[in-house]
Amino acid sequence: MSAVELVAGAELATLSYTVTRADLAAYAEASGDHNPIHLDEDVARSVGLPGVIAHGMFTLALAARAVQEWAGEPGRVVEIGAKFTKPVVVPEGADGVVVHVAGKVRGVEDGRATLALTVTTGSGDDTVKVLGMPSAVLVPRA
Amino acid sequence: MVEQSLVGRTFAPSAAYVVTADRVAAFARATGTPWAQGDPAPATFPIVVAFTAMRSLMDDPEVGIELQRVVHGEQRFVYERPVVVGDTLTATLSVDTLRTLGGADVIGTTSAVNDADGALVCSARATLVHSPEVAS
After folding, report:
1. What is the CA angle B71-B78-B129, rounded to 5?
2. Do A61 and B68 make contact, defined as CB atoms within 8 angstroms?
3. For the whole model, what pTM was predicted?
4. Fewer CB atoms near the end CB (10 Å): N or C, chain B?
5. Which three-class secondary structure string do you get for A15-83?
6. CB-based contact (8 Å) between A134 and chain B?
């Protein structure tokens, strides 16, 4: 995948990822975070959640995936982070939920590009921002 | 309530974690991140090590945190260099800040992720929100 030119003000093409409960189970294995609210509907509801929710870190990993795809190669991210503001509810089945990652280059200084991200679920009036102030910093291509 | 004396405390380093191709591939596959042998690990991969350091805070009976009442509020990584296969990493957690918000303890932490030579690979800053027991 070719890299996008990172100049101040540039809008990055929104990337959309489908998330299923099978993905959360695979992430629990890979990350070691086996909290059952990400795996078991009954447990999630028992603590007042509307259903199984994605790990916050899974959603942040999707944001990092988008940044890597825009960057065109791994290893350029020197900073990434967000607040976990809204749970991402993942319904049962192969359709799951779709997470959208949008980005804009806020500025470039000494070759380092700061990206402001917008990570959402839903569409139109039902759009929900699931991460608070997500951002990333990239160094130039190797 | 968590005691204010927790601020400034540094916990023992986590057990050494060896970054293998299998572990990175599994993480990349689970998150759909493009990854090939020889590539650096996906950007949020160090959470695997930082998470064990967070457990050392939450599992300490003197701290008085109940895991079930903890919500991950914020996470940020600042890298000195990418994580690569072959790294042996440890994470050492320090408590930076503690404040109360709406009856909950908001704990600001930094886990220093170091390589086998003791060099800093990345800083993982996490905010953990610990809610008090709610009368039912």
Report:
1. 15
2. no
3. 0.94
4. C
5. EEEEECHHHHHHHHHHHCCCCHHHCCHHHHHHCCCCCCECCHHHHHHHHHHHHHHHHCCCCCEEEEEEE
6. no
